Fold this protein.
Amino acid sequence: MNILSALRFSLILVIAGLPAAGPCAAQAFPTKPISIIVPATPGGGTDILSRLLSPKLTEYLGQGMIIENRAGASTNIVTEFVARSSPDGYTVLMATTPHAVNPSLFRKLPFDPVRDFTFLSQLALTQNVIVVHPSLPATNIKQFIALAKARPGQITAGASGGTSAFLAIEMLKTAASIDVLNIAYKGAGAALNDIIAGHLQFQVNTTLAALPFIQTGKLRAIATCGAQRTKTLPDVPTVAETLKGFESNGWYALLGPAGMQRDVVMRLHSAFARALQSPDLAKRLSDMGVDIVAGSPDELARLMPLEIAKWAAAVKASGAKPE
């Protein structure tokens, strides 16, 4: 073998020993557990959905899912954490409606809700429901409004700050001209525990989180917040049947830091979509009032600016002032 041939042979060996790049690298993803960051305390709808998805994601991706609950600051701290994380696909955010609401509730955010993220999928939609403690003498929204007007400032509510549920209470106050105390919690789970214990009189929560307690009689559903009644609670009227035009629902979406590789994005999207659409989980979520979307990354990227604009109008209508 002459010198030129030897050099060529050596070069081939070096290239063969290099780690794979591009599509080949993406096929290896993931090689370690993935952290799903949940910007809420345990027990709320976001946490419940993440934990329902986790076993199937582990099965489909071949790696464990680490559910990290990080509540507080209306989701802004944890959202910034994800925005500043490595865009390698191992840290993703289970985002909810506050991602679109907060740009209107806060004068300055430490991140851009669009430019600082990779959009993976709008996972699902959920309808909000107004629930009261059984001790409150109101079985429907009309009775509740009358009671609130008779007891100005005395009825307490609680919801995770910055969420569609918290904002729905503010919208209800404006639309019905009632004075109730709306307490911002770090997470929906803590607020849910307090109303069950009787420390709060009512709250707005997702059907995903509240339904088990409605079914056992620990809470009473007096209205849902969608434009139409939900099949999960078909006998419960909407707020809009009493207050025309009232609507406040939520969604769940999967986000990652900006700059993620497209192949990794699609690997994650496919796994989450497959998990959501698996027959057993799909039925369970449907029974809990969750509508599966499993939208594409491009669909979510187009939707998010529209959601931000929609909630900006809702914040203005509610009378809530930016902090």
Summary: Residues 217 and 261 are 48 Å apart (CA to CA). The first strand starts at residue 34 and ends at 38. The two ends are 75 Å apart (CA to CA). Residues 3-7, 9-26 have pLDDT under 50 and may be disordered.
